[in-house]
Amino acid sequence: MSRVLSEHGIDHVVLERGEVANAWRQERWDSLRLLTPNWLSRLPGHAYQGCDPDGFMDLPQVIEFIEGFALASAAPVRTRTAVSEVRRIEDGYRILSDGGEIRCRALVLATGANNAARVPDLQRALPPSVQSVPAFNYRSPKQLPSGGVLVVGASATGVQLADEIHRAGLPVTLCVGEHVRLPRIYRGLDSLWWMEHSGVWNQRYDEIEDLQRARRLPSPQLVGTRERLTRDLNALSAAGVELVGKLAAVRDGRALFSGGLANQFALADLKLERLLDTFDTWARERGWEAQVGPVERFAPTRVPSSTRLSLDLGSGEISTVLWATGYRPDYRWLQVPVINHKGELRHEGGVVTESPGLYALGLPLLRRRKSTFINGAEADARELAQHLVGYLAGRSGMAMSRLGR
């Protein structure tokens, strides 16, 4: 957004609570790699230039990439400037921060949706002998005590951490609820190549029937490895990870799991089939059949012959519960009445219509399905900046009409 505002000649400042790329420095596990291949890492005038376009950046590389973009863009970043309060005033907004007070006519919230771990209340019922670790605070298997690990959540984070912890030699039980299955490679190309080129990733928020549900879908079960492997539930169970149903409750020291594991598997498999059909149709209609591999279909997710419905957390079998249950935004500092009862920002494609001059960037499916990915930021920023420029010029009504397609 800073880069695009500079192109429009809009005076602005970027406030960062820590250093540039602070979340990547402080709030990610050590072995994390991007889910997106390097060729998809692109921002305005700044793209991956290395020798491994099909690889996946590790943490130091991501930090270097973002630092490089900030430098190349000459972004007016004020580091170590944490915002403590934002209030609406007559001519705009007043921001209180470590660096003092700032007043502005327009404000863009680029804090994202991953500010705090979304941990269910039932964690309070865990026995004292079991360590509770949100994925937000996890760094490596070395920090975990010996003994089994119950990983709650089987989206991208849960699958990656279950695999890493199991490879480190600890027994892992994975609680599986709703999930999105996706192979790493399909017909010889990365699945995200198909998402990008087929237009699925570019589907707009105003074209989706159930937008709120789509925004809450878990991230696909993808991992970024040098071998470009698919590490889905079949791969995990074959390696020795135990699969159980969704964690429904903790009562009297026992974890209780839902019995709907087969249904969750069937639903994820059905959605995968539909998505692959979409890819195949696009390839056929665009004449790509000769450039890609043959049509593939994948084995259904295997249902265990027997599945535990409960687990005694006081028996010593489980030493740690790792909560890979997603993240949530944290708007405690935003003293503007635009937050719903679930703690989410009310907005229309990133425009906070209830509070003129307020915008958001980087939230799930903000304007497109790819809004939370690095390569999805530019298109959203350009459209929102267009509206912002019109608002500052006193033509917000015209800008709203121009914001469409």
Element layout with pairings:
Elements: H1 2-7, E1 14-15, H2 22-26, E2 42-43, E3 46-47, H3 59-72, E4 77-78, E5 83-89, E6 92-97, E7 100-104, E8 107-109, E9 116-117, E10 131-134, E11 148-152, H4 156-167, E12 172-175, E13 185-186, E14 189-190, H5 191-197, H6 211-216, H7 233-239, E15 242-244, E16 247-251, E17 254-257, H8 261-285, E18 310-312, E19 318-323, E20 327-328, E21 334-335, E22 358-360, H9 377-392, H10 396-402
Parallel strand pairs: 1-4, 5-21, 8-22, 10-19, 11-12, 11-19, 12-15
Antiparallel strand pairs: 2-3, 5-6, 6-7, 9-20, 13-14, 16-17, 17-18
Helix pairs in contact: 9-10
Model description:
The chain is an alpha/beta fold and 405 residues long. The chain folds into 2 domains: 2-115 and 329-402, 3-Layer(bba) Sandwich (FAD/NAD(P)-binding domain), CATH 3.50.50.60; 116-327, FAD/NAD(P)-binding domain, CATH 3.50.50. It has helices at 2-7, 22-26, 59-72, 156-167, 191-197, 211-216, 233-239, 261-285, 377-392, 396-402; strands at residues 14-15, 42-43, 46-47, 77-78, 83-89, 92-97, 100-104, 107-109, 116-117, 131-134, 148-152, 172-175, 185-186, 189-190, 242-244, 247-251, 254-257, 310-312, 318-323, 327-328, 334-335, 358-360. It has a 5-stranded parallel beta sheet with strand order 10-19-11-12-15, covered by helices on one side. It has a 4-stranded mixed beta sheet with strand order 7-6-5-21, with no helix packed on it. A 3-stranded antiparallel beta sheet has the order 16-17-18, with no helix packed on it. Helix 9 packs antiparallel against helix 10 (396-402).
